[in-house]
Structure formats: structure tokens, C-alpha cells
Amino acid sequence: MNKTQLVSSSMITLLLSMTLSQSVFAYGGGARQVVCKKPEVKVLSPQPQKGALAVAPGSEFVFEVSSDAKQKAISMSAKDIDIPAQISTMNNGKLKVSGNLPEALVDGYASVALTAPSESGKCNGQAKILVQIQ
User: Fold this and answer.
1) What is the DSSP string of the chain?
2) Given a cut of 70, is residue 11 above it in pLDDT?
């Protein structure tokens, strides 16, 4: 094979590979990234502060969750103990999620956490508050 034939063969191979790759992407063969919008979650009460917040046993916690959360899948917990959550819709369309510290937690530190899955269930919005139960 001479130099002209080698260059010609390489050009044909390159053109063929470019044509095939373009046709694959034209039919949806390209990689797609799934994007999930996490629901917004913030602590309303008690007001978070730097470090642990001193609270009494059985204290109530209130979170605000954006309306794009899957309401029936919202969960609250403290020290791996589920907290029954009461959920209502606020005037602004967001969700108000409230619950009380479990009776078993009477002394020490705990992290009260709320998890709010997106409607698609692909990602979660979360908020935590560190408390010292006294």
C-alpha cells in the first residue's frame, strides 16, 4: 500500500466513523443526565443557632417544605427514632411539617432531621437541627 492509498483509507475510516456517531446521536443514543430539583427545606421553629440548641423533652419542631415535595413520603426523626409528623399547607402553598421529640429522648444530644423526597423520588431535600435535651 502506497502513501496515497494509506491516506485515502484513513480518510474513509474517519468519515465513516463520524457519520455513524452522528446518526447514533440523532436517534437519542447520546448520554442524558437526569436532573432532579431537591425540595427546599428549612427549620422554622425553634430558630437554629450555631452549636446545639437547648430544648426541653418533648419539644415541638416545625419545618417549612416547598410544595414540590412528595407529601406522603416526608419523614422526621431524632436519633434514628421516627417522629410522627403533622403536615398542613400554608397560605403561601408551602408545607408546614411539625412533630415533637420522642418521649424516649429526655437527656443528651440529638439531631432532629427532616427528609422530603422530590415528586419524582430521585432526590431529597433535607434539614437538620442539633439540640441538647435538658
Assistant:
1) --HHHHHHHHHHHHHHHHHHHHHHHHTT-S-------PPPEEEEESPP-SSPEEE-TT-EEEEEE-TTB-GGG-EEEETTEEE--EEEE-TTS-EEEEEE--TT--SEEEEEEEEEEBTTSS-EEEEEEEEEE-
2) no
